[in-house]
Specification:
Layout (H helix, E strand, L loop, with lengths): L3 E4 L2 E4 L4 E3 L3 E10 L3 E8 L4 E7 L8 H18 L8 E7 L2 E7 L6 H6 L6 H20 L2 E2 L8 E3 L5 E3 L6 E2 L6 E2 L19 E2 H21 L5 H6 L1 H9 L6 H9 L12 H8 L7 E4 L3 E8 L3 E9 L6 E7 L3 E4 L8 E5 L2 E8 L9 E10 L2 E16 L1 E4 L3 E5 L4 E10 L5 E6 L6 E4 L2 E4 L4 E9 L8 E9 L2 E2 L3 E7 L4 H13 L1
Parallel strand pairs: 16-23, 25-33
Antiparallel strand pairs: 1-2, 3-4, 4-5, 5-6, 6-8, 7-8, 9-12, 10-11, 13-14, 15-17, 17-21, 18-20, 18-22, 19-21, 22-23, 24-26, 26-30, 27-29, 27-31, 28-30, 31-32, 31-33
Length: about 500
């Protein structure tokens, strides 16, 4: 059981303690606490930084079901939205020693609440980007049928790029079916929609409108540069709107969109973050971002090409234009299809970029360093890329590169593949048959010595084919790395000559 130290009425995880999940997480220090538990900064054994949220065991047996519901809801929601760049990514979730744990990205920057209280009003460019980011995030959350329920400056933190990220989905609700309602309503003073007090239940539509109101309040405070109570905003609404609108520093349509989001009448408000983002984003220029910020192919023990992906995305408005280039003769990039090269161009707000390394172009035993250079409208980003090639490496070839398997009626047909290692190190090869085909591959896994060869027999029964020719692919890996698939065509072997012609004529007449 992990050691704990007392903090007030609670016992918190002690720094240096380890938690066992899909991997081990070392507690670095306590971050904060809420109604149900505590939060910590932690690291993995590989040195990656993460965020640990811990739910304390219930004090009474009657509370167990509610605690499990709250934990399960947040876990499922973070899984659902965690593929978005400006949302905390899901890492792990588990129970240990009576405590529930959720592991996500650690967002390192300060929260917006702290920024506003310290009077750190952002400049117009930063303000516009933050507002656009927040509206895009809310748009994505709502597009996934999730309502946050507790949007406020304290639940918005800045990531390593200085972009705002919405956090803490402990009060959120995921509407899984049309017409679903919930009586679990939450919110914080100054960010509650006017209709909140009159409601006992909520559906997805009303929940999204209340999220829009809370987001509008946050955006107004960002434009003013200070925390405001709901009473202050109500009293100074016209004055604030007029001063911002006539300052000439922000786009008029942008300001109007913000104040439409805080309309008292829900029907005059945006129906969701999706509509709000549509009006907000045109006011801002594109801003390119990339995740992750570095690529490392690690130690490579064979000469086969290796591939890693990065995600390029836009945190601004408009459409992102990007030019992608690689520095290093052992690197190539690609964005669509199988085509790769030294240079790519795209015009999209979200684009996966394939980075391909060719170890055969690196001397055995050497370390290679290259760069991926992305040029956007707002500037340039450089992503370092590294690879270490083992001193002894395998070089595997297969013949034939495409396979045809002819099966006699009522029998079984076989074809042979030959694998050869022309490198200087042994390697493990696996041949993976299609999961939906009744086929034997013998052997499926083997170790190939330097200079060695191995024959692999592929066998199929005629009963699995029917009357038509079938086409599939055999996958194979070297040390777990995918190699180009081997096309496989299988067919029933018919008779020849006159008998074959008569059979074809009979089938056509039929």
């Amino acid at each position: 059981m992990p050691k704990r130290c007392r903090a007030g009425e609670r016992y918190l995880l002690a720094p240096g303690e380890w938690l066992p999940g899909k991997e081990r997480y070392k507690i670095e220090h306590f971050v904060g606490q809420g109604a149900f538990g505590a939060a910590y900064k932690a690291t993995t054994e590989r040195g990656e930084v993460c965020f640990v949220k811990e739910w304390l065991p219930p004090t009474r047996p009657s509370e167990a079901a509610e605690l499990a519901r709250v934990y399960g809801t947040e876990r499922d929601i973070v899984r659902r939205i965690g593929n978005y760049e400006l949302a905390p990514r899901f890492w792990d979730a588990f129970e240990h020693e009576g405590y529930f744990y959720l592991i996500t990205d650690f967002i390192p920057g300060p929260d917006v609440e702290t920024i506003l209280k310290n009077g750190q009003k952002p400049d117009e460019e930063t303000l516009t980007r933050w507002c656009v980011c927040l509206c895009q995030e809310l748009s994505f959350i709502h597009s996934r049928s999730v309502v946050h329920h507790d949007l406020k400056p304290a639940n918005i933190r800045l990531n390593a790029d200085g972009d705002p990220v919405i956090v803490d989905f402990g009060a959120a609700h995921w509407y899984r079916v049309v017409g679903e309602t919930t009586d679990q309503l939450y919110g914080s003073d100054s960010y509650l929609a006017p209709e909140y007090a009159e409601r006992s239940v909520e559906d997805a539509d009303s929940g999204k409108r209340m999220d829009v109101f809370a987001m509008g309040r946050i955006l107004v405070e960002l434009m003013v540069g200070e925390r405001l109570t709901q009473e202050e905003i109500d009293k100074r609404h016209s004055q604030i709107y007029g001063s911002i609108l006539h300052s000439g520093k922000l786009d008029i349509s942008f300001v109007r969109a913000v104040f439409k989001s805080v309309a008292y009448d829900p029907q005059q408000r945006y129906a969701s973050g999706i509509e709000l983002a549509e009006d907000i984003t045109p006011a801002a220029p594109p801003v390119g971002r990339v995740r992750p910020s570095a690529l490392d192919f690690g130690l490579v023990e064979d000469a086969a090409p290796k591939e890693l992906n990065i995600q390029c995305y836009n945190v601004g408005g408009g459409t992102l234009h990007a030019e992608v280039a690689v520095e290093g003769d052992w690197l190539e990039v690609g964005t669509t299809g199988a085509v790769t090269g030294k240079h790519e161009v795209f015009d999209r707000n979200r684009q996966a970029i394939r980075v391909i390394a060719y170890p055969e172009r690196v001397q055995p035993g050497a370390q290679a360093a290259g760069r991926l250079v992305l040029t956007f409208q707002n500037g340039t980003l450089q992503i370092p890329v590294h690879l270490r090639r083992a001193a002894q490496v395998a070089e595997v070839h297969v013949q034939p590169t495409a396979l045809r398997l002819n099966t006699p009626p009522g029998g079984a047909g076989s074809a042979r593949l030959t694998f050869a290692n022309r490198g200087s190190a042994p390697t493990t090869i696996r041949v993976l048959r299609p999961v939906d085909w009744l086929m034997r591959v013998e052997p499926e896994e083997f170790v190939l010595a330097p200079g060695g060869k191995q024959e692999v027999m592929v066998t199929m029964e005629a009963s699995t084919l029917g009357d038509r020719e079938a086409v599939t692919e055999l996958r194979w890996t070297v040390e777990g790395n995918e190699r180009p698939n081997i096309p496989l065509t299988a067919a029933i072997r018919r008779g020849s000559g006159l008998l074959n012609a008569l059979s074809d004529r009979f089938r056509k007449k039929a």
